[in-house]
Write a structure and sequence with these properties.
13 helices; Nucleotidyltransferase, domain 5; about 20% strand; alpha/beta; about 300 residues; globular; five-stranded mixed beta sheet
Amino acid sequence: MANIIGIDGGGTKTSFCLLNTIEDRKNYLKSGETNFKNIGVEKAKENMGSGLQKILEQENLEIKDIDCFVLGAAGCDTEKDYTVFKDMLKDLGVNKKIFIYNDAKVAFKACSDKDGIIIISGTGSISFSYNQNTENRLGGWGAEISDIGSGYWIGRRFLKDLLLYLEGLYIKDAIFQEFIEKYIKDADPFEYIQEHFTDVKSIASVTKFVLMSESGYTHKLSYEIADFFYTIADKLYTDFNEDKIDLVLSGSVIKNKKIHGLLKEKIAQTDRMKNINIVLNNKEAVEGCLNLALEILSLKGEKYENLSAGF
């Protein structure tokens, strides 16, 4: 028997799943975000601890009863980041049988058991290729200096252009007046923007409105984002020698109908990319945590120990 806990720690929420392998039963739970780069280590630990405590209580289990923990963590980019998450879990009583990955890997594993590429664009953005035992990464170096094509990047871009529009320095487009009428109304627009859009989450929240618009502004922006992600796919695919692979698209932005449709069209028009199978990730990334845990538990001896050391 094995009890497994998978944790998908995102920039907006954290998803937990406890799998009882004997009963083949899963229990799902959500808590607040756990990207410490956005909210700080203490708040991230508080949200992580709250979710762990609740799901264990629901199953009448303790941490010692869990055979494997797999965490896929947004913001887990460097050895220092892995140490932060390891220490966070240790403080919560989880000090063994824990495996930590960037959230991209668990999202990919939720959808594919092959080698391939994943492009994630939600609140942030990051891309990876997995080719046998080699991983290559593009992007995801932080909201302020990277994460092109992400929800935060779109929101910040739109709000900047909205301010320019209000000052008469940007071309007229219906989307700006639509936003003012829907959200700002009779308030002072400059004060409203300064007061309501102050952090990554609030700025990224604008993205849904922007991408739902049928304006020329959104059309142009969608092309720009699709072109960028095409460049990412093209770059990462060079290592596969035109092999058949899965390209997993994960996150609300990249899965937007306009953007992924344009990206799919561009890939289909490129003959050397004909072996790319595009997969829209409609599964919870936490499922990838469980798939990785099952792989780990199937290994024995030295292989398991080596994995255990590779936080």
